[in-house]
Amino acid sequence: MNTIKVAILGLGTVGTGVYKLIQKRADVMERTAGAKLEVKKILVRNMQKKREGVEQELLTDNWKEILEDDEISVVIEVMGGLEPAKTMILEALEAGKNVVSANKDLIAEEGHVLLDTAQKNQVDFLFEAAVAGGIPIIRPLKQCLAANDISEIVGIVNGTTNYILTKMTEEGMDFADALKKAQELGFAEADPTADVEGLDAGRKVAIMASIAFHSRVVFFNVHTEGITKITARDIAYAKEFDSVIKLLGVAHNTENGIEVGVYPMMIRKEHPLASVRDSFNAVFVHGDAVDDAMFYGRGAGEFPTASAVMGDVIDVVRNIGYGCTGRISCTCYKDLPIKEFGQVKNKFFIRMQVANEPGVLAAIAEVFGDHKVSITRVVQEHSAPEAAELVIVTERVKECNMQEALKALMEIPSIQEISSIIREY
């Protein structure tokens, strides 16, 4: 029987899910992929740790055992982090082994190096699981939508923040309580910084933008802001404006360059992304031929992520069977500029506390006018003898103009505080 032997690097949540899924699908793998799959080695850090359901003889802490084993033709990297993952993947590719990875941190920084190395050695380097867990998006962008000129990708690609914002919207929780609940349920890490500050989503958006626009975008290019400053008052105003607040990864391919960022945005309830709740993820794509398409599902977790990893593994096995590994490698054949974030245009929701006295609104309007900011809506609902809460919604304005306007506003004595600045989709 034709058997493909694989190695798994890492046996955490995802690695364990991959191992279990290989065992679960063993009886149909030959018909599905064209060959049987056999896990020959699993690289772990701690050989003494007991692992339920995994044969001890499969475990090794010696990378060379895997690298120098000519029988192993597929390496599945689910360790995470930049090193030693980068070195191991490059060595595997140079040795003629195909690699499947779920490592968003590494791919967002060094994806072009890995893809170029795979292409040079005519082997596969696939990474569907690196962006949206179980949701197919990399393969659709590279293959199913390859005939399109894609101009926009907008996504909810972090389940932790989406869960937190859902609880704040639907149950009235404040940020701290919603975060604590997410941690109790395992949706958030003990240190949630990468999630709640938008860093995790930023890496995923960099990867998607690179593939969609055929030009390299790295994590450094992505402007990132998190959700830690979102309050119950902001949620209430969003409801009043028939909108919800979501942490969105946004990438546009414009005539003047690629715009890419991650930040909280108010999005109208009729938009498909507005209905994505709890820890679910979704990616919305606009192409010139397909028009609008949305991909929705579980963006993380043991088996959703393992599903994406195994989809790539099956693809590699099929390619091995037909002698065509390396047929789809790096698709970044353009060299498009990345637009400075200050030149990106957005609509803004601004909530501020001001002195309740005549002339304040006129002073604000003058500052905005001086900085080319056009106001579309002014709301004043809560006031006391000493102070009033003022909400201003703007037309699309350059980020640099808005920042300069905000600095000028804080020099006006009657403006006590700028409480929230949220973009509108």
TrEMBL record:
According to the entry, every stretch annotated as the ACT domain falls at 349-425
Cofactors named for this entry:
a metal cation
| Chain residues that bind NADP(+) | 9-16
Q: What class of enzyme is it?
A: oxidoreductase
Its UniProt pathway annotation is: Amino-acid biosynthesis; L-methionine biosynthesis via de novo pathway; L-homoserine from L-aspartate: step 3/3; Amino-acid biosynthesis; L-threonine biosynthesis; L-threonine from L-aspartate: step 3/5
Summarize where L-homoserine binds, as residue positions: 189
Offer one example of a GO biological process linked to this entry: threonine biosynthetic process
State if Nucleotide-binding is listed as a keyword. Answer: no
Which Pfam families does the UniProt entry name for this protein?
Answer: ACT (PF01842), Homoserine_dh (PF00742), NAD_binding_3 (PF03447)
Q: Where is the active site?
A: 204 (proton donor)
Looking at the record's lineage, which domain of life comes first? Answer: Bacteria
Q: Which GO terms describe its molecular function?
A: homoserine dehydrogenase activity; metal ion binding; NADP binding
Family statement drawn from the similarity comment of this UniProt entry: Belongs to the homoserine dehydrogenase family.
- UniProt-recorded name of the protein: Homoserine dehydrogenase
